[in-house]
Automatic annotation (TrEMBL):
Listed CDD domains: AIG1 (cd01852)
Family, as annotated: Belongs to the TRAFAC class TrmE-Era-EngA-EngB-Septin-like GTPase superfamily. AIG1/Toc34/Toc159-like paraseptin GTPase family. IAN subfamily.
GO molecular function list: GTP binding
Highest taxon listed in the record's lineage: Eukaryota
Domain AIG1-type G: 1-193
This protein's record includes keyword Protein biosynthesis: no
PANTHER family reported in the protein's UniProt record: GTPASE IMAP FAMILY MEMBER 7, GTPASE, IMAP FAMILY MEMBER-RELATED
Keyword annotations: Coiled coil, GTP-binding, Nucleotide-binding
One Pfam family it belongs to: AIG1
Signal peptide start-end: none
Protein name: AIG1-type G domain-containing protein
Organism for this UniProt entry: Moschus moschiferus (Siberian musk deer)
């Protein structure tokens, strides 16, 4: 559908892998990336299509878990990327799965973004959608008539791409205003934030204890040596403190990785939500 290409257009540069291929290119939830844009910070998480690959339930749940961890405490907008054309059965299944995962409330935060805008030629997107599939029309209304179209092709002028980003951001801003400034959150996001907070606190304590132990070790070693070791001691302690600060800066990311590696928390109970749905 062009999810990665759309993410790159929003970011203004090639961050995520995007190319034409028969199988899906994005098979895992790619790390979030951000961009400073007109006084805002646009943060994007590129995800695999939920039905792009013939994966197992556990694999699907694992990638959704990655997405949740990368977008905590929750996204202001869920952008569903569809290729301009008919509303396929696969895309309808994706919408149904999103509802099964996050509930009907997710529709309040969803924007539909059509790719291949260039295929409209002289026709407006609104006119095109007036003659669209009745299921697509119903879904658009369910999303509050929030939609736009992107031309991500390499031949498109950068100014036109920036205008597309402007249109999307305006849609998001209006939606956020209607949602009273809130971001999407549900029990999974709330529980994940609490897990992240606890893991981060544990890591910070581990880092602080390690720093204290390392400094004490250096002081003992230097106390047993001659005085010319004092400068070396100060240099080593300075390096240890720099390493400690660097670890603190990355504590949240390490907490995310820790949760994802934990087999008890790794699927966040997603299989319980959707295993029956997959059997339908």
């Amino acid at each position: 559908s062009g999810k990665s290409a759309t993410a790159n257009t929003i970011l203004g540069e090639q961050v995520f892998e995007s190319r034409i291929a028969a199988p899906a290119v994005t098979k895992t939830c790619q790390k979030k990336a951000s961009r400073k844009w007109k006084g805002r910070e646009l943060l994007v998480v590129d995800t695999p299509g939920l039905f792009d690959t013939k994966e197992t339930l556990n694999t699907t749940c694992r990638e959704i878990c990655r997405c949740v961890l990368a977008s905590c405490p929750g996204p202001h907008a869920i952008v569903l990327v569809l290729r301009l054309g008919r509303y396929t059965q696969e895309e309808q299944q994706t919408v149904a799965l999103l509802k099964a995962l996050f509930g009907e409330a997710a529709m309040k935060y969803m924007i539909i973004l059509f790719t291949r805008k260039e295929e409209l030629e002289d026709q407006s997107l609104r006119d095109f959608l007036e003659n669209a599939d009745v299921n697509l029309g119903s879904f658009i209304k369910e999303c509050g008539d929030r939609y736009c179209a992107f031309d991500n092709s390499r031949n498109t002028e950068q100014a036109e791409k920036e205008a597309q980003v402007q249109e999307l951001v305006e849609l998001i801003e209006n939606m956020v205003q209607n949602n009273e400034g809130t971001y999407f959150s549900d029990p999974i996001y709330k529980n994940t934030m609490e897990r992240l907070r606890r893991r981060e606190e544990v890591l910070r304590k581990i880092y602080a204890d390690q720093l204290k132990t390392d400094i004490q070790k250096v002081e003992v070693e230097c106390a047993q040596a001659c005085k010319n070791k004092m400068q070396e001691k100060e240099r080593i302690i300075k390096l240890l403190k720099m390493e400690y600060k660097e670890k603190l800066r990355h504590a949240r990311e390490e907490a995310r990785n820790s949760i994802f590696r934990d087999k008890r928390d790794g699927n966040m109970n997603f299989p319980l939500r959707i295993s029956n749905w997959f059997k339908k």
